[in-house]
Design a protein that fits this description.
- This protein is α/β, with parallel strands linked by helices and 176 residues long.
- It has one domain: Rossmann fold.
- Helix content is 38%, strand content 16%.
- It is built from 6 helices and 7 strands, in the order H-H-E-H-E-E-E-H-E-H-E-E-H.
- It has helices at residues 4-9, 22-38, 55-62, 98-107, 119-123, 154-174; strands at 43-49, 75-77, 86-90, 93-94, 113-117, 133-135, 145-147.
- It has a 5-stranded parallel sheet with strand order 2-1-3-5-7, sandwiched between helices. A two-stranded antiparallel sheet has the order 4-6.
- Strand 1 (43-49), helix 3 and strand 2 form a beta-alpha-beta unit.
- It is globular.
- The relative contact order is 0.17.
Length: 176
């Protein structure tokens, strides 16, 4: 019979695993550099599903997992549009969600930015032309950035946010 204490007292067997994604780290460094130019100390994102198949939401939620951990770069997801700098919309805008999308946008403080993430949010995707779908987010809101893909990878989403921040930084400098 095995003495239970011997399991706790023996040397632990673990693997040393270090995974470093250089492209992700470079994106993170760029994000950290761009955020203060427009948003102050951090970038607050409100994600809104306007009628998607949830594939894009899975990729967005992956941004918070330990591999990507976007909070270390100064990006956080917030529950209220009143605390958000960016509205990240996923899915084609359905007729039933159009009002909620507009109300969410109106609740955001200025300056406000809208990012359409995924093919459905960009132009309606596979739902384009359906009787229940208006189309992409640009049908009802001014869209600042479109990140295509079905779904886009977390890195593609981060790359899109970097481009958005650089555009916004130029607008702040020129006063547009």
């Amino acid at each position: 019979m095995v003495n239970p204490l011997s399991l706790f007292l023996r040397k632990k067997v673990t693997e040393t695993f270090e995974f470093r994604d250089e492209e992700l780290e470079a994106l993170g460094t760029e994000i950290k550099k761009e955020i203060p130019k427009v948003f102050g100390h951090s970038l607050a994102i409100r994600e809104l599903d306007s009628g998607s198949d949830n594939s894009t939401e899975i990729e967005i939620s992956n941004l918070g997992n330990p591999h990507y951990d976007v909070e270390r770069f100064g990006i956080s997801f917030v529950a209220s549009p009143r605390h958000a700098d960016v509205l990240m919309v996923t899915g084609a805008v359905t007729l039933n969600m159009a009002g909620a999308v507009k109300k969410t946008y109106e609740a955001m403080p200025s300056p406000k930015f809208v990012v359409a993430v995924g093919d459905d949010a960009c132009d309606g995707g596979i739902y384009k032309g359906s009787y229940a779908v208006l189309g992409g987010v640009d049908k009802i809101l001014p869209v600042d950035m479109k990140i295509p893909g079905n779904p886009p990878s977390p890195k593609e989403i981060l790359k899109g946010l970097v481009v958005l921040m650089k555009q916004a930084s130029k607008e702040v400098k020129t006063g547009v």
